[in-house]
């Protein structure tokens, strides 16, 4: 059989490999881990990095005896960890399970954990969708934070957005009654999609008539401050599990 033209072959996956059909909580990016981040990985990684496993997480083993019963907050995609460290320092009575695949971000958060003396954060350097599916049982979470996920601006890429009905359904089943999910974005069309998707999940109830005021615990990032100075908007959504 005649091979397709070169321009068409470039669009084909390697033999035996299909295009991905599931949403991931991350996008692979090129990036360099600094010497400070690498040192933090070596110094603090053994204490605060958890291995991914295809079995429910043992919170006593993860956080230590006497601490496993504290409320558990899942953060999906923490970037460089600034908000994570800030919130964990404010909420010392809660445990935080933070998911991020990029090594530079993991190293940056570990560096802050060491500098601030935080003990209530554990990091999983793995796709949060698989963590949610395999490591977190139903009604195991008291809260979920998803701050500024990739908006995938182009219409043809909207299918790659993280906040879609299948994931929200899974999140709702993992959140305890009375728990919450807090999302934030600086892209208004994505904010509208989040509002629709979260509003259509019958186990979730909006805490506001539409978008919520920014909760005091969520700090303003430097990019957010710059955007606000330029007149850009930021939208927070907080839904409760009923």
Order of helices and strands: HHEHEHEHEHEHEHEHE
| Percentage of residues in helical conformation | 25-40%
Neighbour order of strands in the largest sheet: 1-4-3-2-5-6-8-7
CATH structural fold name: Rossmann fold
Mean pLDDT rating: 89
Count of DSSP-assigned helices: 9
Count all strands and give the number: 8
Query: Which of globular, elongated, flat, extended, rod-shaped describes the shape?
Result: globular
The CATH homologous superfamily is called Vaccinia Virus protein VP39
Structural class, judged by helices and strands? alpha/beta
Radius of gyration: 19 Å
pLDDT < 50 runs, ≥5 residues:
3-21
N- to C-terminal distance: 59 Å
**Count of domains:** 1
Q: Main β-sheet: number of strands, strand sense, barrel status?
A: 8 strands, mixed
CATH architecture label name: 3-Layer(aba) Sandwich
Please state roughly what percent of the residues sit in beta strands, choosing from under 5%, 5-15%, 15-25%, 25-35%, 35-45% or over 45%. 15-25%
- So what's the CATH class? Alpha Beta
What does this structure look like?
The chain is α/β, with parallel strands linked by helices and 242 residues long. It has a single domain (33-241), classed as Vaccinia Virus protein VP39 (Rossmann fold). It has helices at residues 6-9, 35-48, 59-63, 82-90, 103-116, 128-134, 165-174, 188-199, 222-229; strands spanning 49-50, 72-76, 95-99, 121-124, 141-147, 175-185, 204-206, 235-241. It has an eight-stranded mixed beta sheet, with helices on both faces. β2, α4 and β3 (95-99) form a beta-alpha-beta unit. The radius of gyration is 19 Å and the shape is globular. The N and C termini lie far apart (59 Å). Residues 3-21 have low confidence and may be disordered.
């Amino acid at each position: 059989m005649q091979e397709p033209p070169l321009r068409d072959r470039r669009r084909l996956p390697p033999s035996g490999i299909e295009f991905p059909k599931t949403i991931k909580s991350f996008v692979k990016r090129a990036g360099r881990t600094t010497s400070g981040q690498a040192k933090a990985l070596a110094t603090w990684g053994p204490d605060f990095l958890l291995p991914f496993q295809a079995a429910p997480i043992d919170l006593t083993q993860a956080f230590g005896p006497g601490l496993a019963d504290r409320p558990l907050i899942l953060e999906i995609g923490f970037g460089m960890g600034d908000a994570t460290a800030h919130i964990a320092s404010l909420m010392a009575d809660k445990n935080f399970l933070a998911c991020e695949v990029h090594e530079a971000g993991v190293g940056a958060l570990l560096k802050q954990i060491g500098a601030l003396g935080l003990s209530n954060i554990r990091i999983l350097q793995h796709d949060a969708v698989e963590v949610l599916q395999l490591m977190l049982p139903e009604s195991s979470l008291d809260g979920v934070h998803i701050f500024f996920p990739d908006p995938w601006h182009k219409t043809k890429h909207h299918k790659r957005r993280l906040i879609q009905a299948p994931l929200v359904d899974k999140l709702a089943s993992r959140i305890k009654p009375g728990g919450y999910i807090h999302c934030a974005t600086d892209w208004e069309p994505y904010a509208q999609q989040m509002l629709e998707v979260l509003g259509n999940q019958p186990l979730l109830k909006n805490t506001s008539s539409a978008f919520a005021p920014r909760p005091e615990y969520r700090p303003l990032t430097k990019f957010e401050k710059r955007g606000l100075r330029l007149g850009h908007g930021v939208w927070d959504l907080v839904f409760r599990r009923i």
